[in-house]
């Protein structure tokens, strides 16, 4: 407890994977504005479209992160990597992205003594699922938890709202449907309400700087945590 409070009082270094994505981009902005952080390391395939003195960017093949283990050092790691079956129809490549990258990042955290790891999964993740997408997410969660990183937070958002750069016609249509049905979801069903990426980013930042039980966090709780000042 004392050690974590001391860490929070000093300026920290964060690693962000997926900063060019929707949620990762919002998270990056929040980290750059936060005085608790002096450096934000980015490991990307493509350069982010912003310049800031806190940013330290490495353009790499994310499938080969282990070769840069000496650079993978920070106080916290935020993994916002994720694809869709439509965007990545090849199941082998999809698995390398949604399972391989987060699992490797967790291993590097363990190797380098990083005690806080946060990763975005999905509501319904289940390694025993008959659905490929849910099964891969569930297997990723299992691989991450196996590393036994002290502060491990696996966020399971429902459908993520917000505007993306790439076109996802089916997802856009489903968001419109969910916009109608969100108001009808109460009680145990409220976790299925769509969620804005800013809420996810805010929740991740709050979790990294406060004491909270490690494990999976479902969408409705993510919203609640994202409302913390």
UniProtKB/TrEMBL annotation:
> Record's InterPro entries?
NAD(P)-bd_dom, NAD(P)-bd_dom_sf
| Domain NAD(P)-binding as annotated: residue spans | 18-147
| Signal peptide range in chain numbering | none
Annotated SUPFAM superfamilies: NAD(P)-binding Rossmann-fold domains
Which Gene3D superfamilies does the annotation name?
NAD(P)-binding Rossmann-like Domain (3.40.50.720)
Looking up Pfam families in the UniProt record yields: NAD_binding_10
- Do you know which PANTHER family this protein is assigned to? OXIDOREDUCTASE HTATIP2
Q: What is this protein called?
A: NAD(P)H-binding protein
């Amino acid at each position: 407890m004392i050690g974590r409070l001391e860490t929070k009082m000093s300026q920290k270094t964060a690693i962000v994977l997926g900063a060019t994505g929707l949620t990762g981009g919002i998270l990056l902005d929040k980290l750059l504005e936060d005085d608790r952080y002096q450096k934000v390391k980015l490991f990307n395939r493509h350069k982010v479209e912003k310049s800031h003195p806190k940013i330290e960017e490495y353009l790499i093949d994310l499938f080969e992160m282990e070769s840069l283990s000496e650079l993978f050092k920070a106080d916290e790691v935020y993994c916002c990597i994720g694809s869709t079956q439509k965007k990545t129809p090849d199941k082998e490549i999809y698995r390398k992205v949604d399972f391989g990258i987060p699992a490797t990042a967790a291993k590097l955290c363990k190797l380098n003594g990083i005690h806080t790891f946060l990763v975005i999964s999905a509501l319904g993740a289940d390694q025993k699922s008959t659905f490929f997408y849910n099964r891969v997410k569930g297997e990723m969660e299992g691989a991450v938890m196996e590393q036994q990183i002290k502060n491990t937070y696996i966020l399971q958002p429902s459908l993520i709202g917000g505007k993306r750069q790439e076109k996802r016609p089916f997802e856009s249509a489903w968001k419109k449907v969910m916009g109608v049905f969100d108001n009808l979801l109460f009680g145990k069903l409220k976790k299925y309400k769509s969620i804005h990426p800013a809420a996810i980013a805010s929740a991740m930042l709050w979790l990294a700087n406060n004491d909270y039980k490690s494990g999976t966090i479902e969408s409705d709780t993510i919203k609640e945590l994202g409302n913390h000042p």
